[in-house]
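W.,

You were right to be curious about this one. When I first looked at the sequence I had no strong expectations either way, so I just let the prediction run and decided to look at it fresh. Below is the sequence, 235 residues in total, followed by the output.
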Amino acid sequence: MVLARRSPGFTLFIDADDTLWENNVYFDQAITKVTSSVARHGHSATAFRETLLTLERARVRTHGYGLANFRHCLELACQARLPEPGLAAVLQVVDREVSLLARRGIEFLPGVTETLRELAWRHRLILLTKGDHDDQLAKVARSGVHLFVHRVDVVREKDAAAYVDAVRRHGVRTGMGWMVGNSPRSDIIPALGAGLNAVFIPHPATWALELAQIPDLTSERLLVLERFEELTAHF
């Protein structure tokens, strides 16, 4: 089947973490290292992970999505589950793993840079990412992705109000905006709720707190793709 590519001139808001590059898989690896250390001190790995997820869910709205909050959640989970003397040793593992995350290089998903380069000739590309402002801009700088997009926009939260505001600030005309991302909760559902179209590109390692049921996968305003590089067949 020959696909009909959309005409030029759309604004594509594009997510960063786990859409352009690997992200959550590294956080999962850090959690696994800490959890293994907890287990070596005779405590339940399952209970530790449940405690950590509960803390993350409770804190992200007020403390954000950056490395500082991730570190604090790990520390609080350790303190809740581990008495001394094991606590000090596990906290050293936390410090090491979070420090490694801060220095980790960017690993683009397949075809991302080539796809961005091609799309930028036909459409306006705005990197729209949420989280700690400094953390996200540091990733952008390390990745060089700012060379392929027209603007970079870091917001604290991605909800319907944030998308309405982004549409207003960037002057997106009705029907001409699309949000591209891997997160149902942050990229797809609120963007559709704000009147944007959306491209859902699932990632197998999407963070548990970003998962949600998309109400209507058959909507004409929603496009579901397997890989980022498939965008060039549609835009």
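Here's what jumped out at me. The beta strands are 11-14, 124-130, 151-155, 177-181, 197-200, 222-224. And, maybe more interesting for your project: The chain has two domains: 11-21+108-233, 25-103.

Coffee later to discuss?

I.
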